[in-house]
Amino acid sequence: MIRLLLLLLLLLAALPARAEEVVAGLSHQRIALTANFDGSEIMVYGAVKRDQPAPEGPLEVIVTVEGPSTPVTVRRKSRVFGIWVNTESVVISRAPSFYAIATTAPFSEILSDTENLRHQISIPRAIRAVGIAAAEDAPGFTEALVRIRQAEGHYHLDENTVGLAEATLFRADFVLPANLVEGDYRVRIFLTRGGAVVDLLEETILVRKEGLERFLYNLAQDQPLVYGTLALALAVVAALMASAAFRFFRL
Amino acid sequence: MQLYLPIAEVSVNAFALLGLGGIVGLLSGMFGVGGGFLITPLLMFIGVPSTVAVATGANQVVASSVSGVLAHLRRRTVDFRMGWVLLSGGMLGAAAGIWVFDMLRRAGQVDLLVQLSYVLFLGLIGALMFQESLRAITRARTPGAKPRRAHQHFLVHRLPLKVKFRTSGLYISVIPPVLVGASVGFLAAVMGVGGGFIMVPAMIYLLGMPTKVVIGTSLFQIVFVTAFTTLMHAVTARSVDMLLAVVLIVGGVIGAQAGTQLGLRLKAEQLRVLLAVLVLAVCFKIALDLLLRPDELYSLTVGRLP
After folding, report:
1. Which residue in A has a C-alpha nearest to residue B10's C-alpha?
2. Cβ contact A15:A31 at 8 Å
3. pLDDT per residue as tens digits for the range B273-304
4. Is A97 a member of any domain?
């Protein structure tokens, strides 16, 4: 009996990760891309659940929002016969279309490199650039990808933007740009202490084209001939109507 | 008000787009051109991907040339026989253009092709028009100057397969019109333009057609060639954005009517000089982009190289 109790105690001691648990919610589970979609804000809020007093050291929170990943071809221009032409290209196997990180403190201070490697949290880690090392100046191409997407507002690292109260309640706000790609957006919430990830939680936001956008996109993809004919018919009808209308006004 | 475009997958200001269509319509109404050569570069400028800009530009030209050709049909200034001959060449050229466009899109060089053909043709046509209209102005100012000969004999009269074109009053071989149609069709597919600005000078100077039937006949042919290109782009690249096209067409239709009224108050020579300056300005802007070192040497394309 005593042995059993000891074993249980040992097990509990060996599970420090469950000592603090994250619970969270999202302001939106679903985002509709309709014709007047003009970007969206989402709020991630949550709390840290404990069944014993908090351990030593400050608790930190990292929240990431990640759009669907696709392969990306990065091309570099160089001068050929006096004009700038795409000459070299590198394929990056997977890069998220959107990636935002919000933290409670400077990123490098609250997450160790090994934990970053394991959970692939930082922007360069979120991009899987395997197999491009063979190309000449491969890092230049990945850096360009991050630089361009940062300039477009698709990749963010917002340090010190997560509000954390009493090491228990937290809230992070994200702005999603107007030119959002459809797909499943993954939200990850990490609790870290001393650079190590204590607990993590994953949620999903569904971003979907809806209404007219959905209809047009599907039609263009599935029935291109019908779609093209419809586009032409629309153009002809618009022209006929305009011509008739203006003749009517002139008379 | 922002508008999310389903195919281009970008969000643009609806009023900016409407204004863009309106300005292009205004110019096309003033000068009697389709305006495709302005709309495609302007769309690329506001961030629409070049494949979508070319395909949707073609769709917009369909609308503007249909309303143009209706006006000419009422005035009976369309040479149908010439139109069909040009069209047969145009379809071949457009098919070849679509094929080349698709191949280069896969190779990542489509922007270069579009830009280069714009610089080359806008520069050439702009310079020719500028010179010609300046000459016309000076000729109009010097009284007693020799008028141009009404009928000249070119190569077109010596080739075989001669056909009578009654409306144009011509008896020439069908080979040159087919070639003209084919090259304009090719450019229409590659540049997303109707090609009126190439077709009209070619018909006047190469085929010797009378000016009054030239615009109607070229519009007649352009309607079919651009309709074919739009359809082909929709099928091969799925790059026609209907929402974008509708906004552009609405703006364009309103602008075109205003432009026609404005055009009636200006003299023909002055109009041609203005059009030449406009064409040269667009050409110059695109050439600068090619020649100057870009701010960002890298560009991204979603998807894998084939």
Report:
1. A179
2. no
3. 887 888 888 888 888 888 887 777 787 777 65
4. yes
* DSSP letter, residue B206: I
The reply to whether B242 touches chain A by the CB within 8 Å rule is yes
What single string gives the DSSP state of each residue in B101-162? HHHHHHHT-HHHHHHHHHHHHHHHHHHHHHHHHHHHHHHHHSTTPPPPPS----GGGTSSSE
Indicate yes or no: CB of A235 within 8 angstroms of CB of B249.
yes
Residues A185 and A141 placed together within one structural domain of the fold:
yes
Asked, for residue A35, whether it belongs to a domain, the answer is yes
Contacts of B241 (CB under 8 A, 6+ apart): B5, B6, B7, B8, B48, B52, B55, B56
Find residue B163's DSSP bridge partners.
Answer: B172
pTM of the model: 0.72
Of A38, A148, A242, the CB nearest to B2: A38
Q: Which residue of B has its CA nearest to A145?
A: B300
In a domain, residue A166? The reply is: yes
Average pLDDT of chain B? 79
Domain holding A116, by residue range, is 16-209
In a domain, A190, yes or no: yes
Q: Are residues A164 and A223 in the same domain?
A: no
Question: Is A229 close to B231, i.e. CB distance below 8 A?
Answer: yes
Between CA B255 and CA B38 the distance in angstroms is 14
- Tell me: do A164 and A236 sit in the same domain: no
Read off the pLDDT of residues B167-184 as tens digits, 9 standing for 90 and up: 777 777 788 888 888 988
Tokens of A8: 């249980």
CB-CB contact of B30 with B64 (8 Å)? no
Q: How many residues does chain A have?
A: 251
A210 touches B at CB < 8 Å? no
Sign of CA dihedral B139, B140, B142, B148: positive
Contact A73 B300 (CB under 8 A): yes
Query: Does A196 share its domain with A84?
Result: yes
Total domains in the fold of chain A: 2
Q: Is B305 helix (H, G, I), strand (E, B) or coil?
A: coil
From A200's Cα to the closest Cα of chain B, the distance in A is 30
